[in-house]
Amino acid sequence: MKGFKFRLASLLNLRCSERDAARRGVADATQALGILETQIADKSSELENLKTQRGTYLQGQISVDQLLAQGRHEILVEQEKATLQQQVGQVNVELRKRELILQTADQEVKRIEKLRDRALQTYRDTEQARLQAEMDEVAAVLHQSAENSLRGT
User: For residue range 20-39, what is the model confidence (pLDDT) as tens digits?
Assistant: First the structure.
């Protein structure tokens, strides 16, 4: 409507911006989680390859230095995988926090939008009543004018 101006429009815009920022935060955390899970899968695959290699070393000539180096490398990869799994837990906690922030921001936007919708409906009702009163007044004047012309005055 042309004449309607919502008094809390700036607050609504602010809350929408906060909600959008919260959505981006959730998306970032979800993306980080996906990256970490991919890295964990890579580490698991690397560990499987190392274990397969160790099996082939045991079938041939055994080099103690090679076995020790591979064992150290396996331990290092397992530690990296454990660190990544710990980070997944931390990111999951952060993701839950961000989802709660998003939920709260979304509720706040919906609450203000409801206020805006009610204010708009009130404005429309008031405007409709004003137009109806104006039309009634015009109709009354026209009716009075028609009666006067029929009477010959």
Answer: 999 999 999 999 999 999 99
Q: What is the pLDDT of residues 52-82, one digit of tens each?
A: 887 776 666 777 787 788 889 999 999 999 9
- List domains and CATH numbers for the chain: 9-151 (1.10.287.1700)
Whether 73 contacts 124, CB under 8 Å: no
Half-sphere exposure of 4 (CA within 13 A, CB side): 17
**What is the Cα–Cα distance from 101 to 141, expressed in whole angstroms?**
60
**Range 68-96 burial, b when 16+ CB lie within 10 A, else e:** eebeeebeebeebbeebeebbeebeebbe
- Write down the pLDDT at residue 60: 65
